[in-house]
Design goal:
Distance between the termini of chain A: 37 Å
Radius of gyration of chain B: 23 Å
Number of strands of chain B: 0
Structural class of chain A: alpha+beta
Distance between the termini of chain B: 63 Å
Oligomer: heterodimer
Number of strands of chain A: 18
Structural class of chain B: mainly alpha
Largest sheet of chain A: 8 strands, mixed
Strand content of chain B: under 5%
Largest interface: A-B, 21 and 18 residues
Order of helices and strands of chain A: HEHHHEEHEEEEEHEEEEEEEEEE
């Protein structure tokens, strides 16, 4: 009897401990950082790394990041008229070229928690995703991600998700309809929330192709829409590219208004620090 | 024929006994001013926007692109015309450029770029020639208005500020980066190395 009581007590303590270790954070105490999601048109990594298209390549091969040049006073200093032009976006630009996404991050010994809050704009051009009004995606680059251009190389921390975005991937003009995003060097962990009722969170990756399953991060996600403002909360294991003392490059994509493929709004690449430096420092629980 | 030329030369060499030196000098000076002025006026006429877009090759293509750029319309009300970027200001370089540009008359007669399709077909070659000219002169025509000395890099946007610092460090010239700022870039431009 005593033995069983002891076992039960230990089990209860274990459950309580696990519950406290995996408790969702009090989001009101987690700092917020607004980053801009924008319509990237057909600006693939090949475009980014071609000097005649993007003179900023000169800075990138010297170690500059996209954010270092293009984020200013909380906004973007892109030439949005150019981004929306037929030359850059032959399919036509969405009505809203950019909008803020509020990012919050926290972690405990077992998990990372990431919350995105944004107003998903209407007025999209591509509405091929009939099932989902909105999808929210976060990708984390591992330290092997690299983009080579000539004899120069830039890292995932500099280019965010762009190492996966190629001119020959599906929905790009003239591209193979079945070719997904991919990396040449390194890999990304991918997690996605879909707005369709009952849709399962995606725990995937991007390697030589996009894998919408097979991840080891145990991703779960919840989302709600209050008057057009979406709040999406991801919970995933603190493993892989994420870990205590690590800084991981990440980027966010929002597919608004039933958009599919490249017709998303994306953020540039930021870094997330777990007890380490980063553009955003995750709050330890 | 040769005899006639010799006779004319003899007349020209013979000192005047009819006109005073002051008359000759005055008439020579006045004629010089008139002809020089006329020559320069005619040359300046070829520097005007109206002259440049007098041909449909320019009017229908590059002019339409230029009209959408900051060099045509901006908050300060300063406009750079075709010749401000494409013709040197100083006389000797301007003359050389004008003589070279006379070859364009041949292209006009031959109809080398007289349709949109032909223009696009030749755009890369034409643009490459102009970029090479600008690079060789250290972007002299850009520098008629812009200079690093007059530029307050700290007041610029982050991307401009960072790129101009690199440009200064590496002694780059304007056209190294600022291609396609007044006209569309050619399609399929070759990759440039740093």
């Amino acid at each position: 009897m005593k033995k069983s009581t002891l076992s039960l007590s230990l089990a209860v303590i274990g459950v309580l401990f696990a519950a406290s270790a995996n408790a969702a954070p009090d989001w009101s105490k987690v700092p917020k950082r607004d980053i801009q999601a924008f319509s990237p048109a057909t600006a693939s990594i090949e475009w980014v790394m071609k000097k005649s298209d993007h003179s900023g390549r000169t800075g990138m091969v010297k170690g500059e990041t996209c954010v270092g040049c293009h984020e200013e006073k909380g906004g973007l200093n892109f030439d949005m008229k150019k981004m929306a032009s037929k030359e850059m976006e032959p399919a036509g630009a969405p009505k809203t070229m950019n909008f803020p996404v509020t990012v919050q991050a926290a972690y405990d010994s077992a998990n990372a928690y990431i919350r995105l809050t944004f107003k998903a704009p209407a007025g999209g051009v591509n509405k091929d995703d009939k099932d989902n009004d909105v999808k929210a995606t976060v990708m984390f680059a591992n330290d092997k991600v690299a983009v080579t251009a000539g004899d120069k190389s830039v890292s995932g921390a500099q280019v965010g998700c762009w190492a996966t975005c190629h001119g020959d991937s599906r929905t790009m003009p003239g591209a193979d309809a079945n070719k997904t995003k991919y990396t040449k060097d390194g890999a990304y962990e991918l997690m996605q929330w879909k707005s369709a009722k009952g849709a399962k969170a995606i725990d995937g990756s991007v390697t030589d192709k996009r894998n919408m399953e097979g991840g080891t991060a145990g991703v779960s996600a919840t989302g709600d829409n209050k008057g057009g403002t979406y709040t999406v909360t991801f919970t995933r294991k603190l493993n892989g590219a994420l870990g205590e003392g690590k800084t991981v490059p990440f980027g966010v994509a929002v597919h608004a208004d039933h958009a599919s493929g490249r017709f998303h709004h994306v953020t540039m690449g930021y870094t997330l620090g777990f007890g380490a430096e980063g553009d955003i420092k995750a709050t330890k629980q | 024929m040769l005899e006639k030329l010799s006779a004319l030369w003899a007349v020209l060499k013979r000192p005047s006994i009819k006109y005073s030196l002051i008359t000759l000098l005055s008439v020579g000076f006045a004629s010089g001013v008139f002809f020089w002025g006329g020559f320069n006026t005619a040359m300046e006429a070829t520097n005007t926007l109206e002259f440049c877009i007098g041909c449909h090759e320019m009017k229908d293509n590059v002019y339409q692109e230029y009209k959408t750029t900051i060099h045509y319309s901006n908050r300060t009300g300063v406009r750079a015309y075709c010749s401000d970027c494409h013709v040197p200001k100083d006389w000797s370089h301007k003359m050389i450029r004008k003589i070279k540009a006379s070859a364009e008359v041949f292209g006009k007669i031959m109809g080398t770029i007289d349709t949109k399709e032909k223009f696009e077909e030749h755009r890369l070659r034409l643009a490459t020639n102009e970029w090479a000219r600008m690079k060789a002169s250290d972007s002299r025509e850009c520098r008629n208005c812009h200079s690093f000395d007059a530029m307050d890099i700290e007041k610029q946007k982050a991307r401009a500020s960072k790129m101009h610092k690199i440009g200064l460090e590496e002694k780059q010239t304007c056209i190294d980066c600022h291609k396609g700022i007044a006209h569309s870039k050619p399609k399929n431009m070759p990759e440039e190395e740093e």
